[in-house]
Records
---
Amino acid sequence: MTSSVPPPPRPPSSEAEAAAALAAGRRLLAAGRCDEAIRLLLEAARHAAANAEIAYQLGCAYLASGREAEAVEPLRRAAEDERYAAAANFQLGTAEAKLSRWSASAAAFASAVRLRPDWVTARLQLGAAFFRLGDVRGALEEAQAALRLEAGSAEAHRLYGVALYHCRSFAEAASEFKAWAEAAPSDALADLALARALLMAGARAGAKDACRRAVARDPNLVRGHFFLARLALRENRLGQAQAHLKRAIAARPQGASLRAMLARLLLRRSRPEAARKVAQAALTLDPDCDSAALLIAELHVVDGEFGQAWPILRRLAGRRPDWAELRTLDEQLGAARSPRRQGSESAAAAPPWGESARQRGGGRQLEEAPSVAREGGGAGGGGIVSPGPGLGAVAMSASPTFGRGDFLDQFFLLRALVLRQLRLHYRENRFGFVLEWVRPIIVMVLHAIVFNALHKRMPSKIPVELFVIGSFTIWFAFVHVARGCAHVRRQAAAIPGVSELHHDLARMSWEFLSMFSLAVLSVYLLMVFGFRLPFPNLPKTALYFVLATALGLGFGLVVRALARRFPATEMINKNFIWILYITSGHYYSIAYGRHGLAAYIWWNPLLHLSEFERQALYPGYPTELVALWYPVVVAAGLIIIGLVLDKCTRHLARD
């Protein structure tokens, strides 16, 4: 039996194989399987190298897979065939644009527009290429031509607005961006561009509203939060600026520059420790973040850690020789590394949060901002990066004004001043703050011994220890603030953003806390060691110490203002303080003894506070002969008069 074997099939012709491979490659490319499509299209090209459609599809496949350099040659071959010339030139222009070869890109798009004058997308991409080449007039002409062909085109309004913006026609640009936003209501970038144009046109309120709309449409729009932060800084709304920067960081956790900006803002809000942590996080993300490194160096200089600041400044000086703030820090560091006295004066002149010339200029970090660039929507995955008005156009506030800041910022500023004062005074002795209590304790102990030895009768049988504590803690709270404020600090005016009044309030806060805690702790220790004593009335005690420090503040302001004009005032002040001291502690014996001096001594406001503080420590102590309203009125009057005299004498001294 014989079996018939069929003959082998005849090999198809090269044209058939090329057609089959082209069809399969086209299907794979439409499905997004670019690598498989490229392999089949290369096989087809080997069989039909002169086929323009194969070259065009191969170029599109290369372009879709991100291999723009390999797409150029087949697209050029396809452009030689008039059937594919317009489409091939468009894709060729897209490939050249992605390679940043803008002249070749413009030439290819121009060829596509010449072949198809009604192709709106090609005109827009040609206009964007002109813009990249610096030909703004050409970009304007192409955008106008696109709007004539397709009225209401979002991309045409976008390109036209960008070109007008860079011609500094901000009002006209805002009109085009508004039309872009109306044509593309879901595009947050349209409102962001509108916000920048309105701000440059002087419509700050409209700019803020537009940017808020952009952020509402896209809560993760980093540039929108950045823009709102800068607007808040212009208005000195530091809390709002901080909130927007935090939201920007949440949307872009790897943004080291954003963290450096937040750290600088925290320094402006007098939160050095928080700023240090944020700056360290920025350096962890990007060791080359120079703005964060500069901030760390400033904090080292202020804290007296010169050995750690020096290598950072040396490295930054080599990388950023144009930064003027580096020279400022070098001068501070050089002065601090010279003899001890000069170093202490330099440290005294340094701001508590590490602010340098950088902050006075508004902060270099906040001058750099991401642009609103994005890819245009060309066919076949094409398109080029179209420029947008950068956030660098938004200028920062020239100088922070703490007087118009939030109350919370003032609190953190005073806290930073107090902590800095402690670091400067006690950095070589951890227990130095205890020494602030040694003198008052010695004075109180000696007076208690003397009164006990003399068997002095205390009113209402108040224990002599409470009698002494109530008087002398009030006295020391007053005198320390008064003497500190009366001193004319020539270095204080050199600290940007910090006035002498800030130093006075910091001293007042510290003396209040110090003497208040000393009074309460002294009574507590007496109770621990067996004395049967009532616990102090803390609210009343705090009130009396606040009034004592306020008296010292007002008294010191008046003396300091007069001393600028009359140097002998300081010597008179020392003698007058002793008069206040002598007449403030023994009023009870004079008043109840019916001496004629009682009516004159009554005018010493400190004795009123001393008497009331004794009652706060011992409820049975009599205070019928004193009045709380009097020290309140005197303190308020002295502060007002002191501030007025201070301002007047400053102007006179300046003139």
---
Amino acid sequence: MIVKDEARFLAGCLESARGAVDEMIVVDTGSRDDSVAIAKQAGARVLSYTWTHDFAAARNFALAATKAEFVLQLDADEELAKGSAKAIRAAVGQAKDAWLLRLHHATRLDADRAAVVAGHADARVGDEQNLPRLFRREARYAGAIHEDIGEWLHAHGGRLGHVDADIVHWGRTAEVVAAKDKAELNQSLLRKAAAEESGLLYHGYLATELLDCGKHEEAHAVAEEAFGRLERGLVPSHHSALRVALVRIDGALRRGDLGRVAATVQLVEAREGSHRDLQHLLGEGYLAAAIPARGHARARNLARAIAAFGSAIDKAGVRYAQAFVSGAGHEASHTQRGIARLLEGDAAAALADFDRALARRPKHRPAWLGKAEALVALDRAKEALAVLDGRLDETPDAWVVAAAALERLGAIEDLTACLRAARERVSKGYVSSHRRRVHLDRAAALASYQGQPIVDDSPMGVLGALLSRRPLAVEATGATFPDARTLLDPLLPNLLGLGRGDLAAGLFEPRARALVPGIVDEIAALAARRGWNLGDDGEEPRFCLEGDTHACALVAKMLGEHPQIRFAAGGTKVPVSVEPMEGAVSVQALFAEPRRAISEIYARLGVPFHEAPLRAVLTHEVES
């Protein structure tokens, strides 16, 4: 190993490696702390080296100092995990030139080592990486920074294997990164190396370094320049384009350029083979394109997103030499596929994906938000609220999902409070961008419950136009909005329960069928879920209700006694009134004693109460 001022970690590193190696060589490049003394005390051979701003040169100096047949390379801020020594010694008996070990980045300095290796969310940053850390002594490093033995392996036809061994890395913790503050130095070295190279290696390192530092525009420009070389065939075949591709895709996703995402994935996978990182990001691109789309475009992009995330998940067990997208193939891909399935209308499959994500990372916030949302869609609103309990945070998402659950339960006052809280947090941004539409739809539904439907060309706005019988600008173009039908539950039941049957009547008029194809079938399905019978047996209804404001809302109360209802014109009109009027059934009586009031209706019709089910009618004839 090479070290400079690593007294904090050096003793632990050397102690962890003791059982795996026969000698320990520490090359010091100018330490001013106790690193040299600590290394000597641990039994290491310590050599001095004058630093030349070239990491590969320093490492090659260390390699030249040993006569061992095989070398294990560690950095001072790393430790070999327990149980790894035996696997390392067994590996060198195989006919290989280098072996990949698993590297795990700890989240904090007090993290449990076993938890880091196991990948617990609060212990490890991102996924494991597979790096060539065990190799023949003849290997040589290349690269002034981010040095590796890749060029040597390619030149010598190196045979690469895997070792069932793990390294815990402490240097990615926030405390250590802040203390070393190497970002500007690294970028300076990488800019120089990128300017001198003919391939992609340092362009990829520079682009990712810039991206990690928040310098997005410069990072994307570096990636585009490098990718141009790749497209012109100017890059050596053994130089991986993965880093450059991931940064280029990041830029394309930020701009909403799905075509560039797909083209990038296609070119790199044709060159290097399919990779779970690329498939996951391709899925992200299709999902981002699906969220604002409608109709066939939405369905097509959702299907493609689900397929891409599935491809990433299928590759979860592959050990890649390079993998950078945290959770790709695992919790991130399951979560995003769950969202796509949810938007596609398959809430049960979505819930299974969210549960798989949480099985791997129990605290994965996007997954438990998705799980709560799927439970709402499955009409399990109370379970959804239990999932959200204690998780209403400073982002709007949890409040929006809670609002949707409360709406399902008919808790309109609590719905109002949740939407107010979500609105106050919109500036924080949504965890998943599709919830912006969910938020707007819930706010529009609340406006309808308050008797002021919002009218626009969104699916909920179209329902608002039907509820309020107001014109819709795009109506003259013949546009239809089949997606709107999926929003009827819980809108229609809540309108009836709140006494807004006068608004609900607009959903059963011919205009509704023209604007929202399939609305009749959706209402029938909703009725079936709610235990209502909306079937049409060809008979005319025996009576319909007409009269004062909100008369239609009585249906919701009456269904408790007679769960059978017809929506049609015709039949004997039975007057209903808030104020006393001759021959009318009072609203108060229907709400207070529905069975008795209905029996009075039957008596007037000359039909025994027990022989005929109630057949009520909501039509455009029923007015406020």
---
Amino acid sequence: MAALLRFGVSGTLAAPAPAVEPALWTSLITGQHAHKHGVLHAYEPHGSGRGTAPVTRPTVRTATLGAILSAAELTVNQIGWPVSHPVEQLRGVAVSDRFALEGRGDSLGSAGGWPWVTPPSAAKEIFARRRSPADVEHMSLAQLLPTDRFSQPRYRGLQEACRMILAESQTIFSATRWTMQRNSWDCTLCAFPAISRLRQALTNVLSPDEVQVLGPSILAGCYEHVDMLLGQLIAAAGTDATVLLVGTGSSRSSHPRLVLRRPKQDSAASLPKNASVLDVTPTVLALLGVPVADDMDGRVWTDLIFDDETSACDLPQTVDTWNTCIHPPPAMPRDTTPDEEPPVDDSVRHLVELGYVDPWDAKAKQQAEDCRRDTRRNRAVSLIDAGLHDEAIEELQQLKSDFPDWPAPSELLAESYLQRGQVTQAARELEYSIHHGMESARLYFALGRIAAAQRKWDEALLHYHVAQRLSESLRGLQLARGLALLRRRDFASAETTLQQASETEGRTPQLLDALAVCNLAKDDHAQAAEYALESIDHDVSYAPAHYHLALALVGMGRAADAKQALELSATLDPTFVAPWRWLARLCREHLDDHVRANEYQRRGRELIRQRRQTRQADNA
């Protein structure tokens, strides 16, 4: 990892909602939001109607990177990728994400390796490389769990969990290395879920106090173990290979991290602004000369992948969609059908403990119903994240009707209405939760945004404080706090909060523009101009950034440039009054153009009159 960071490009990626790991990994490998690809939950109702099981590949409704590359007649290997069971037929080797811990030896003889491995000719070699928890040596186990805990019975559950995690990682590594050495290939995809599994195991097996004491060292050992495996795979790929690594941050709330190393890469290259998980598949397709689909939500990192000898003009023409290359899996053999109740033995209990499967119990039907309900909610979350508020509102209204005692639809409806500027409707949606004494981070976040829309800044900050206490990872919360502090004219606190938000939530146009305002308040016009220009670089149509750039230019004595920025700001947002006032002042005080100053003043007054009439009509 250190070598990749030294010679490659690294940075954080924006993660589309919902924040469900299988959904994020599927968005990465499809380039599409969750409401499109269909993976919205870690589990799905079991085929028997009793309980739930981990989400499976038939849930994926859009083409994956492996299927696209295979359709383009490129050789691709895919090992252990989340939501890949039962395995699909690729032009290369594919190994299911459940193979490492669930693949049974008798499956090789009964079904030629399916549903765990394709093609059948590779199954024997892949099964020979499968490691069981019993195969894990104490030396390997010591990388995760301190040796003084081995003999203590109270840590036996954690030891068993660590053995399973190590066995899974070693199986994925061995299978990946063999596929890379087997034949020539164009793309190899593999996923190591060890860190995520270990975090879950620590929570399930240890007390909160023990997690605080033992967790950091155990996770550090896991990072070191995965780093060693990745280093060997990168070395096997060769120096002429492009390496793209995506992983989680140091905590559950961290944004995904990306490292990219290309042959002969310029170390001065940098990750594009607002880079997203959704961009990975389009960028890989462009690197391999495969057309990107118009229905993908991500973009190609053209500035990063093209050098002086090639350009974005060399990209192949786009296609409408790659979803025509989706192939449904064949019927599952009878001995592995999900309609049959799994045996209740130690291996299943371990999988339950790690979160791989749910046990069937008296509440099984309720589990399935809750899973369906939460999946529908997550679809609405994805629609909101994609800006499709009409569709989100329709979904949430139906969900609210089906589950009238559940506050989640109302809270999400309030969020969607707020993003559309419909404050009254948002407040109405939250009445049920407020009157029933319910508490959630989303509820207080929404209440804070309503108070902010009504210019009640102290009340908004109080609600934001409660929301942060309930959930520190709620996206957009730090930015909202910073904006409220800014409107209270507490510029120092606002700047500190906004800087924190830029590290945890990303540098958005609104956040950068707010930082420009903070620097205008302390007369640092040069720094304010830099932030405003960076905001414009993110979104050239963001009118407030042009406005605040103009104010910074006035402070720097560049009246003519400021006038141009103000005119552009007024054009981009015809309802924005402030640019007209400043244009009038600029022409009168700096450019000695009283005729134009009067015209600008007239336009500003006319706009105020129109806004007043519109407000009166709405109130009537």
---
Amino acid sequence: METLYTNKTGTKLEGPPPKGALTRLRRAAAGTPGAFLLGAALGIVVFLLLYGPSTLDVTYDSWIYNGYVEEDIIQRYAGWLYYRAAPWSWPLTVAENLSQPYGASIVFTDSLPLAAAFFKLLGPLLPATFQYFGWINLLNFALQGSFAVLLVRRFGLGRWYSLAAALLFVLMPVFVERVFRHDALAAQWILLAALLCYFRARHEKKFPALRFFLLASLCLTIHTYFLPMVYGLLAAALVERMLRQRNVLRLRKLLCPLLYLAACFAATFVVAYAFGLVTRGGGGAAAGFGNYSMNLNALANPSSFDWYAGSGNMDWSLLLPVLPQNFHQYDGFNYLGLGVLLAWAGMAAYGVVRLVQAVRHQDRGLARRAWGFVKGHLPLLIVCLCFTVFAVSNIVVVGQTTLFEIPLPGPLRRLGAVFRASGRLFWPCTYLLTLAPVVFIGRVMRGRWRGVLLAALLAVQVADMGGVLVQKHQYFNAGRLEKEDEFTTAGWQFLMENYNEVICLGNMFDYNLGAGIIRYNPNMQTNMILTNRGDFPIILDAYAPTIQWLLENNPIPDGTLYICSDRGTFDYILSGADANVRGYSTGHYYIIGNPVPGCPLEEHLPARAQAAP
């Protein structure tokens, strides 16, 4: 008879579930819309308490130009501005006015391509200034709460217990740390949804094939780093499904999962092409695999990157000390929180007590149940082990000490180059490590102890993170975050409004400059590189020939500006420029182009113009 369910110890059982197990599953499935809405409401309330409503004003973008934690949100916004102004093309997310002459896909500016394409479609109805990042992060919080409630209820736990437990996931350090810093990577509800699909596949007769397929496709329209995580959980679910069936080696039982995986791969490739992941001027690889990895102390290390605090890192714990790590390993941040760490210590103590009791009474049932749990979840445990190995990378580091480094063959190096920030691949494990004590308390504890222990876990977790939460609240509720710099001056605005092309000489990856170029003129085009990945050498190789071309006294096209941030390069070009060319300086930048009467900036004349009688 086909196996239809797994009991709470992880043992695979055949036949229909007993009445108690069936009741739990029915209760878990009942009231799903209500639980989903309650979780969404929880997420929205937490978002408003943390960040307030200011970022929800779609016409207010000054806070973006300030940056947050680092300047990456400026990159996201600049990518959206260029994409919105560019004509529609194929693939859908290519902005022809960026990284000229090749164009660039805003998938590689992390501008949330699905949201960008949707709002570009609504472009004529939108105001001139429009940012969607506040609403996207509000949606991330709402869906984080919704899928957290559904995931906990999947284990037969009550609605209100599940809602309280969902607060742990809404305030997960790895989630909150990415909000408004890496907005696309804050869509971690995808992982909760994938875990929900995995556990549904364990208990339901019908495999959630469509749900897994939609999640895999959705990853490519939000952020590709979620794709291997979803596929890993899908692989675990498929293998477990196969192992629960008799005659697993029959061709039909092997062929169906393989055909399903092949169909998923084909469909996700189509989505990848349509959204510009496979396009000219783009590339999936980047240097740095092994540097942006997970430190072996990451689970208990409450330190992440934070520029705006001024100290270079943010302390996520009021009680635990910040542990040393290599610089780039801030991106492998996977701190569990003090509440979850203490819960695991309590679970370990409970396990030791049960083990002592079993040994004393010569009870072998505990060992059988433990082995049944491991055996029942073996594919998931293997997938989690793979996630962990990849997250730690081939350069294994504890603190600031490199324990060893494993040389990688070519194919593995190329795979690592695609997902160079490997520390992120541990996130499914982080969520499972948080889920485990929630389920343990809900399934093992009885009566009032269940609520008391969950409340204690939440209280310790939130109190320990209090410093960070207060800091974020104060930052986003300190009034309108205006930024005055060279990009807001009348002179800069005049230049950008009166020219339609900017060619940068050297400072190709300046996010502030990239956003400043298009801020006042949607018709602007530039060779700037604002993408994380791409064929950078092709564009960078044009730098020296362009300077040589200018020194050869070639006429500068009308409407074109050349910008650099080096005064020596600026003076060098002006020394050989045509007498009619003008140079301008503003803040950190030096600009060369044909003159336009009325520019309020100070003019720098070429040597030939200065020497003329």
